[in-house]
């Protein structure tokens, strides 16, 4: 594979941000000039109402961004996590494929815990490469925490950098 | 002037969060700003950086309502006070009860405290759990230290994914400032990292680069900031200059 010797960064992990901003039609920088040193305003009453959940009788402090437990869990622990077993082979690929599709649909950040992996075949690695590619298209992020054996296998196939485990 | 609460945050470790927090806060204090530092990392290294190692109680105990903020706040330098981590801080990360309120503990405390301060800097842990969530609930402004390597970019990507989720759910937009710390100005890789950052964070990277220097790693062992340990060093100059940038919002121009 040809590689620009001057280029020392294989890919831009932040690329999804610009694409995501373009989708919205604006960038954060457009909203925040260097001179704009003021903190964000306290949410307006309407905004507070928007955030209000199950609290119709509760007196709302408009300074308080009220969110539901579900929303909170989504935002704090909503990163999709998939744990790979010690032995990953083609027999498990179909099931893993199904899981990854679900996780990819529901999360912006997908964490693959491959730290327990002792053996992994090309079919599983191929699937993870496809996951990476699909995530880029969807402006999502996939992070793999890999065991040494996983890294060895990925590097052997020349896809360690692609999977960001090299 | 109301207090500015700023989270010094990056989920990647080793990018200079605590070094930036300690030295920037001290530089701001020396310029006459009233600054409070909150050590929000259970490791408690921020306290160590100021020679404060004897505190058992800190922000952890305050969040768990075991004590008051006033009782754990200590003056560490002129204009500069520290709220140590406290031995209970690690318990916050393990909280399983309390629903959404678990993430809102710090904001509630700060809402009624430290109102006489110009700046409150929260030195966040290198994680994306409950403590980081509490910091993101409590602030509208982020200071993100970045070193000049590829994994820093990767870490920033994760952080931005989290930040966007919070922006969506809390219906607010964070003001973000990046500071280049532990930066090797002669490495080609560092320059390429900087170019990528300038592309994605235009007008959001503070102008002064904190250059990598062994002295910055030495001074915590003496309980001193670089401004005390080697006040004439280039690192001390970097932090004084960074403090000016921070106050004036002076940023780098595009690539």
Order of helices and strands of chain B: EHEHHHEEHHEHEHEHHHH
Oligomer: heterodimer
Shape by Cα distribution of chain B: globular
Q: What would CATH call the class of chain B? A: Alpha Beta
- Domain count of chain B: the total is 1
Low-confidence stretches of chain A: 25-65
Major sheet: arrangement of strands of chain A? 1-3-5
The most extensive interface, with participating residues per chain, is:
A-B, 46 and 53 residues
* Helix-residue proportion of chain B: 40-55%
Topology record:
The complex is a heterodimer of chains A (166) and B (255).
Chain A (H helix, E strand, L loop, with lengths): L14 H10 L3 H4 L13 H7 L17 H9 L2 E4 L3 E2 L4 H14 L2 E6 L4 E2 L1 H16 L3 E6 L1 H9 L10
Parallel strand pairs in A: 1-3, 2-4, 3-5
Helix pairs in contact in A: 5-6
Chain B lengths: L3 E5 L8 H14 L4 E5 L5 H5 L9 H5 L5 H4 L1 E4 L2 E4 L5 H5 L11 H7 L7 E5 L6 H9 L2 E6 L3 H21 L4 E6 L7 H13 L13 H5 L7 H4 L4 H15 L7
Helix pairs in contact in B: 1-12, 6-7
Tell me what you see in this structure.
The complex is a heterodimer of chains A (166) and B (255). Chain A has 166 residues and is α/β, with parallel strands linked by helices. Chain A is built from 7 helices and 5 strands; from the N terminus they run H-H-H-H-E-E-H-E-E-H-E-H. Chain A has helices at 15-24, 28-31, 45-51, 69-77, 93-106, 122-137, 148-156; strands spanning 80-83, 87-88, 109-114, 119-120, 141-146. In chain A, helix 5 packs parallel to helix 6. With 255 residues, chain B is an alpha/beta fold. In chain B, strand 3 (74-77) and strand 4 form a beta hairpin. Chain B is globular, with a radius of gyration of 17 Å. Chain B has one domain (4-248): P-loop containing nucleotide triphosphate hydrolases (Rossmann fold). Classes of the chains: A alpha/beta (166), B alpha/beta (255). At the A-B interface, helix 1, helix 2, helix 3 and helix 4 of A face helix 7, helix 8 and helix 9 of B.
